Amino acid sequence: MEKVFASVITIGDELLIGQVIDTNSAWIAQELNKTGILVKHRVAVGDVWEDIWQALDEESKRASLVIITGGLGPTADDITKPLLCKYFDGKMIVHQPTLDYITHLFEKVLKRPMIERNAKQAEVPDTCTVLKNERGTAPGMLFQKNGTVFVSLPGVPHEMKWLMTNRFLPMVPELFKTGFVVHRTLLTAGVGESFLAEQIKDIEEALPAHIKLAYLPNYGMVRLRLSAFGFDKESLEKEVDHHFGLLKERTKENLVIGEDLSLEQVVGKLLKEKGKTLATAESCTGGYIAHLLTSHPGSSAYFTGSVVSYDNKIKQKILQVPDSVLNTVGAVSEETVLQMARSVQQIMDTDYSIAVSGIMGPDGGTDQKPVGMVWIAVTSRTHAEAKIFNFRFDRRRNIELTASHALNLLRIFINENR
Question: Which domains does the chain show, CATH number per domain?
C-alpha cells in the first residue's frame, strides 16, 4: 500500500473575488483525512473553460483523487458539466432517475412548475457514474481516467457534504487501498507559540519522520497537533500516544485540554460534568460569547441565556448598574462589569456568569481608555473576579479575543472551585 493523495479544485468567479469564502475545501480535507487520504493540493479557478481544463490536467498528475466542487448549476456560467463531458470523451444523456427526482421535487414538494433549465440538470455525461443528490437538483458525478478518480460535486455546501458523506465516502474502500492517519491534539492557553516551541524543542526533535507536529495559534490559544501516517493502526496509535503523553506532561501548566475541542466546548463540557449553568451579560461583544456557546448541540444543558447590554440604558434598567458608577468610572470599568455579572446571574438564576465591557474600535478610545481596553468579570454564587485586558487589533479580532479570554477566565475560575 502507498499513500493516497488528493487534490481539491473549487470552481467559481465568486471565490476568486472574495464574494464567497471557500469552506468546502477545508471540510473535504478533514473528511478525506479520516479515511487515510491526504489532500496534497488545493486550487481555486474561475468560470473559465481553459483554466478548469488546465487544473484538471495538472491535478491529475499530482493526485490519485481529484475532488471538484462548483459550476453545476442551471445558469449559463455553470460550465463544469459540459467541460467534463468533453474532457472524459462522453456525450450528454438524460439520467432518468435524476429527472424523475427533480420532477417530483418541483411538482410534489416545491409545488411550482419545472422549467426546461431545471430539467437539464438531469443531463450527465455517459462516461460518469451518477451520484444521486437528495439535497438538490445537481447530481454528483464520478469519472476515472488514467488511474485517477475524479468526483464532481455541487458547490452548495450542504449538498456537497451530503453527497460526500452518503455517496462518495462509502465508495473509498473499493476505490483505494489507504493507510491510516492518526491525530492527537491538545489546547494550551497563556503561553506564546515561540515560547511553547522552545519548551518542547527536544520532544519535537525526537519525533520519528512519520510523525509531524503542527502549531496552530489562535486568539491567545495554541493547539499542538501530532499527525502520523502508517499501515498498522494499532501500533501507530500506541506510538503517537507515547509522544502525545510527553507533550501533555511538558505543557501541563498551560494545558487546557488534551482533546481537539474549542474553548467554548471545553467550558461547556466542564459545566455539564459539574451540573452547573451559565449566563452572559455582553456589551462590547454584542452576544458573540453566547453565539459561540450555543453553536454546539446540547448547550441548553448548561447555558440559559444572555443580556446584550450594548446601550447604557440596558445596563441601568436591566442589569442594575447605578447611574453613579456609569457617570464616574464609566461603562468600561471593574465596577460596571462586576455589577453586570452579578445581575445577569441573579436574573437567569445560574451558577456562573460572564460579563464583558470594552472599546472594540476603530473609534471611541481615549488616552485613559484606549481602543482594545476590555474589562471581564466572572462570578459564582460565592465569588466574583474581574480582570482588565488591553488588545491592539481591529474590531473583529478584538471581539474574538475578548470572547476567548472571557471563556478561559471562567474555565480557570471554575477549576479553582470558586
Answer: 4-175 (3.40.980.10), 180-257 (3.30.70.2860), 263-415 (3.90.950.20)
